[in-house]
Amino acid sequence: GAPTISIFLKPPGVIPPGGSTTICCICQRSYGSFVLYKGSRRLHSLEQNGSRAEFSISNATYEDRGTYNCHYLEGGIVLARSEELEVSVEELRLPRPDLSVLSGHEVTAGADVTFRCTSTHPSTVCYLYLEGQIRAQLLSREQGDYNLSHVQKGDSGRYSCQCYAISALREWSPVSNTLDLVVR
């Protein structure tokens, strides 16, 4: 069948001006090339031998904001297009949230895991990220817990969270500390 591409930011989240991040594109096939587009504009292409391509954004400016996607080509023919990735560049004015996992970092498959993203700012919405991809949206600090039930091996990985204020300005926090979850 046709290959698929996943696209995500590493590290995830909203980038502050002057900050940096990497756009990662991963395809199951490994002998073609990847092309990064912003909107309909072709930005970079990478000849690949591996199954992933990484495009860096360093010293980010507001010009870097926008919608990106990756195309995977073999012999000049586009075989797959990723979903669109929204990149946001904003001043990070809120305090950094703290991510904890209430069930411990190592759990057995089938267990329930609760993540808690704590922000000292009173009314925020937080995102829980897994390996750079949005896993869940957590509403307000009062219920800033996210319960992952019946975890499987695929839930293993590096988690972090990031919050924004529920106000007209939608001010963001930096990304929290990261936690590694191991599912045995």
From TrEMBL:
Keyword annotations = Disulfide bond, Immunoglobulin domain, Signal
The UniProt entry, under PROSITE patterns, shows: IG_LIKE (PS50835)
Taxonomic superkingdom? Eukaryota
* GO BP annotation list: cell surface receptor signaling pathway; immune response-regulating signaling pathway
Q: Which InterPro entries match?
A: Ig-like_dom, Ig-like_dom_sf, Ig-like_fold, Ig-like_Receptors_ImmuneReg, Ig_sub, Immunoglobulin_dom
Among Pfam families, the record links this protein to: ig
Residues in Ig-like domain copies: 3-88, 97-162
User: Which SMART domains does this UniProt record tie to the protein?
Assistant: IG
Q: Which PANTHER family match?
A: MHC CLASS I NK CELL RECEPTOR, OSTEOCLAST-ASSOCIATED IMMUNOGLOBULIN-LIKE RECEPTOR
Name assigned to this protein: IGSF1 protein
Q: Which organism is it from?
A: Phainopepla nitens
